[in-house]
Write a structure and sequence with these properties.
The chain is an alpha/beta fold and 455 residues long. It is built from 20 helices and 14 strands.
Length: 455
């Protein structure tokens, strides 16, 4: 490197290694920060915004499994997925390296290292990150389908006008709408249009968070707080400090945990599990739900004070059946995406296939459309997707009451399970708590199965 470029964050508990890197790295990179442990790693990520993290695999004395490094790698990829992580270990364990790469590590460096190799890897990672992380105007063009797509119809035009007014503020936003309408993409769009766009947006799927891990996941914990708490852990609130916290499926929070969430939102500070001091947090809150929270307030299953706290501004995302102008453009976008992924020749829809897409009710919304197009592309044999290609998908969110959901000979266990879940969803009109209870499974388990079957 002839010109210093890039910001490196080193996390290693060995003082000798930190001292050596403190001398070596600033010669080649414009900024270098060093941490002796992962404590405070997430807050440092938010404030320093490194191009690369050089992460040690072990922080516990006499423990060389690499599990800590893999844990923090996963945490980094959840909240800072575009930031390359280079794993740093004294043990040339190929299986550990493979596992790290599977979880998203950019590369793997073995101690003692060769300076030339280390500098090359960090330099490559920096260049990759600086090409990926672009200003918002450029990023919109680069990321394509990962961004909100606005239809021209009256329903979505109204939503867009509201978003343009609300996004620049710090007002809490509640996004409502059916499953599969793109509430997560709308939340990301609000974050991108806000003054916090340069800071992280941290997403929490509350439908998949068990009650026992709720406080640890959201508020964090200190080392020794419980059996498996081998190091301090910054919760989602702290990870989102300075940015946006997106709480998806907020209607799934049990009543007794709603009070704890309300307290944090009121105090703007979290108390980590096992901790003794409050940690201030500065976040913009966006929540989403497919439930009728106002009705739940009346039934006593959702706190009224929490409802008004999260519902400063409410934006309802219409179902796909009310956004007819978006169906074909979205289908064509998915066609191109999956044709590229599966190396198929498919380029367009036949006239009858397009008509079938427009006539479908799309109870599963965009998620159902995406799933149908993916299956059609997989089975396609030519450049044009036909109505017959689409008929093989057969993936509807709620079948009509006249559809045959009986178990037949030849059904797999997955097919039987899917039919049972769809029947329960129809019977209880999509009330996840009632569905889970009728099937004798937990809400997180139900939520995972809904995703599995694209329900």
């Amino acid at each position: 490197m002839t010109k210093k470029s890039g910001k490196i964050l080193v996390v290693d508990d060995n003082v000798g290694i930190r001292s050596a890197l403190k001398i070596l790295l600033p010669v080649y990179f414009e900024e270098v920060e060093l941490l002796p442990s992962p404590v405070g790693l997430m807050s440092k990520m938010s404030s320093f915004r490194p191009d690369v993290v050089l992460l040690d695999m072990n922080f516990e004395r006499n423990i060389n499994t690499g599990n800590e490094g893999l844990f923090w790698l996963s945490e980094l990829k959840k909240s800072f997925k575009d930031t390359p992580v280079v794993l740093f270990t004294a043990y040339a364990d190929v299986s550990l390296a493979v596992e790290g790469m599977k979880r998203g590590a950019f590369d793997f460096i073995v101690k003692p290292w060769e300076n030339e190799k280390l500098l090359q890897v960090l330099g490559d990672a920096c260049r990759k990150h600086r090409n990926v992380v672009a200003p918002p105007a450029v990023a919109r063009q680069q990321l394509g389908e990962n961004f909100m797509r606005w239809g021209e119809g009256a329903a979505m035009s109204s939503v867009r006008r509201m978003v343009e007014k609300v996004a620049p503020t710090d007002a809490n936003v509640l996004i409502t709408g059916e499953n599969g309408t793109g509430k997560d993409l709308l939340a990301a769009e609000i974050h991108r249009m806000s003054g916090r766009a340069a800071s992280p947006m941290v997403c929490v799927d509350l439908g998949a968070v068990t009650e026992t891990l709720f406080e640890s996941e959201l508020f964090g914990h200190v080392r020794g707080a419980f059996t498996d708490a081998k190091s301090d852990h910054a919760g989602k609130f702290e990870q989102a400090n300075g940015g946006t916290l997106f709480l998806d499926e907020i209607g799934n929070i049990p009543l007794h945990l709603q009070a704890k969430l309300l307290r944090v939102l009121q105090n703007r500070a979290v108390m980590p599990v096992g901790g003794s001091r409050l940690v201030p947090v500065d976040i913009r809150l966006i929540c989403a739900t497919n439930m009728d929270l106002a009705k739940m307030v009346g039934e006593g299953t959702f706190r009224e004070d929490l409802y008004y706290r999260v519902n400063t501004m409410q934006i309802h995302l219409p179902p796909l059946r009310e956004r007819q102008d978006e169906i074909l453009p979205l289908a064509e976008m998915f066609l191109k995406e999956f044709a590229r992924i599966y190396h198929r020749r498919a380029e367009c829809f036949s006239v009858k296939a397009a008509e079938a897409l427009l006539q479908n009710k799309w109870n599963g919304n965009i998620r159902e459309l995406r799933n149908m197009v993916e299956k059609a592309v997989i089975i396609s044999e030519g450049e044009t997707l036909t109505e017959n290609d689409l008929s093989f998908s057969g993936n509807r969110l709620y079948q009509s009451q006249t559809d045959n959901a009986e178990i037949v000979i030849g059904d797999t266990l997955d097919m039987v399970e899917e039919k049972a879940i769809r029947a329960a969803m129809r019977q209880y009109d999509g009330n996840l708590s009632a569905v889970a209870k009728s099937l004798n499974i937990s809400r997180p388990t139900l939520y995972n199965k809904l995703r599995k079957y694209n329900i």
